[in-house]
Amino acid sequence: xxxxxxxxxxxxxxxxxxxxxxxxxxxxxxxxxxxxxxxxxxxxxxxxxxxxxxxxxxxxxxxxxxxxxxxxxxxxxxxxxxxxxxxxxxxxxxxxxxxxxxxxxxxxxxxxxxxxxxxxxxxxxxxxxxxxxxxxxxxxxxxxxxxxxxxxxxxxxxxxxxxxxxxxxxxxxxxxxxxxxxxxxxxxxxxxxxxxxxxxxxxxxxxxxxxxxxxxxxxxxxxxxxxxxxxxxxxxxxxxxxxxxxxxxxxxxxxxxxxxxxxxxxxxxxxxxxxxxxxxxxxxxxxxxxxxxxx
Length: 295
Prior knowledge:
Layout: H1 11-31, E1 34-35, E2 46-47, H2 51-57, H3 67-97, H4 104-111, H5 119-130, H6 137-144, H7 152-155, H8 157-182, H9 186-195, H10 199-210, H11 212-227, H12 231-235, H13 248-257, H14 262-294
Antiparallel strand pairs: 1-2
Helix pairs in contact: 1-14, 2-14, 3-8, 3-11, 8-11, 11-14, 13-14
């Protein structure tokens, strides 16, 4: 009997993925165990085991929560707020676009636009031409209506980031969910019309269960994309005021380019990856549990 060796064709793909993803991560893990400060060339690079991790997790004063935990909380708040907004609004927009009406193709193209704009470029546009209180659209319209414009980026940085992240990644959710809606056979729609199903029943009792897997894929991939978003924060709030809009990826950037500490940046990057994997696992188990309950 001839042995089937078709799976050997997977080797090139596995090797490429391993080199691109796993090798850099292993190098990061190695860096995370080193005392390596680029601003102090007089200090030798030294192996310190897990001291860089302990630096972030330890609580020096029980009356004051360390900054690291605030950054973790801000990252979770931003990520899951954006994930919820993108999922709910993306589903509703997909329902609107799932109709054969004049101009629907143009509408689909326009709504997918933000997904193809670079994060840094879109952040600069929002900060300078829209949200600026002096010569931006927001400031001009507010003054024309007799209001004093508030600097949203300075006073409400978390809300601004959640809005910009949602604007940036909403098209991805629409793309995936709309593909699921359009994969529903036309016969099912005809059957619902014959049975006299109203819009609510047809949408949430028939269509939603049929595209649950598409929504699950959008949410899990969206979680990865959102939590690693960096460019929008860099060019809009720059993590400020202070550290009030820091996320874990931005904190990694600051550890390297501001503190020049490679070891702590590596540890923080590893912590970010671990928390992301935990979040994906929790989200996946929650989705699987709901799928088992609702069939």
